[in-house]
Amino acid sequence: MADVTRLLDAAAAGDPKAPADLLPLIYAELRQLAAVKLAGERAGHTLEATALVHEAYLRLIGTDQPKDWNGRVHFFAAAADAMRHILVDHARQKKSQKRGGDRPRAELREQILAAPEGPDEILAVDEALAGLAAVDAQAAQLVKLRYFAGLSVDEAAQAMSMSPRSADRLWAYARAWLQRAIGEA
Asked: What is the pLDDT of residues 4-20, one digit of tens each?
C-alpha cells in the first residue's frame, strides 16, 4: 500500500496525474466502505454505493485546495467522514418540506399507461387524458405520442420539438397526473 501513500502525497503536492492513478488502487476499498455506510440505511434509499463513492472521492480529491494526507489511514478516515456528510445532506434534502418530505413516497407505475388490461382501463385513460388536455395540452400531446403512437420519450421529444430532458420531466408529470386521475375515478 506504499503506492497509495505515494499517490496521496503526489496529489497533495498538485500532481494532476496522481488522482487518476489513485482511484483504481482505492476504489474497491471505498466501495466497500460505502456499502457499509449504506447498509444501515432504510430500504428504498435512493443513493447507491457507487454514487456515494464518486461524490466522496470528488470531495476529497477534486477540490482545488491541496490536501495533506498523513497516509492511507488518514485518507480513508476522511473518506468515511465525507460519506457521512453526503448521507446527512441527502437525508436533509429528502426530508425538506420543499421536496415533499412530509408526504409518503408513491411509485409511478408506468404499466397503467403501457399495457391496458381491457376496455374499462382504456376508457379511464381516455377520460383522464381529456382532463389533462384541459390543464396542460402539451403534456396530453406527449401522452398521446407515447401511449397511442408507441413512441419513446426521445422520439416524442423530437416530434414535439423539445429537448429529451424536458420531455422526460413532462412525461413524469403527465404519468403522475393521469395515475392520480385514474385512481380517483
From this structure: 778 777 777 777 777 77
